[in-house]
Design a protein that fits this description.
The complex is a heterodimer of chains A (158) and B (81).
Chain A lengths: L2 E7 L5 H5 L10 E8 L3 E2 L2 E10 L1 H18 L4 E7 L1 E4 L3 E9 L2 H18 L2 E7 L28
Parallel strand pairs in A: 1-5
Antiparallel strand pairs in A: 2-7, 3-4, 4-6, 4-8, 5-7
Chain B lengths: L1 E6 L2 H6 L3 E5 L6 H11 L11 E4 L2 E2 L11 E5 L6
Parallel strand pairs in B: 1-5
Antiparallel strand pairs in B: 1-2, 3-4, 3-5
The chains are: A alpha+beta (158), B alpha+beta (81).
Amino acid sequence: MMRRQLILTPEPISQSVMAGPCAENKSCGALLSFVGIVRSLEGDQVIEGIDYEAYQAMAKHQFQLLFNEMEQRWPIESVRLIHRLGRVDVGQASLWVELLAPHRQEAFEALGWLIDTMKQKVPIWKHPIPRPETATTAPRAAIEQDGETQCDDPSTIS
Amino acid sequence: MRVQVHFFSYFRDLAACSQCSLNLEKGTNLEQALVEIHAKFPNLKAMKKSTLVAVDMEYVSRDHLLCEGNDIALFPPVQGG
């Protein structure tokens, strides 16, 4: 049974988490980790950060489905994944993934697949925050992750 | 039957709200519901080809039959990482 840890958080991904002890398993010879970092350029736009929005319940569900499939396809012993939400400044980590597997080949294959598929299926969106002196449009208003706004006209379609 | 529709990312801006309710005939499928959603929120219709749709957090086909209490989510292509 593959061990799993999934965290979606507005808090910075700390060095202590990334450097923390992985699951002890003497049959595993490959520990692979990936850190995604916010770049200063998003397309051709200079930015100071990215505001990450998620449909959190579905994101967690879809991540678990990806973990299920990954476990079916590769002999991964452990996966730990942290994705930031909310504002992440340039240079900060937005994503951290760690896999533990018997051999490096399956770890590399599974990690590439997991990140590629995440970018197709997990409902998380980037809202770049332009640097003020380079902004051509007003920065997007902050999004209340759990806030809900009802339609002005709450009437239903019949 | 009543279902709830949720909009995410810039679809919320295009719809000018984050959610609404729909009253649908029993036996309505997702494609038919989308026609009603686009009629109520015409700004979303232009994004039809790139729209991702989930029902109760699962990606389903457009002929998926809806049920009372379903949560339908509409959103643009995802961009995590």
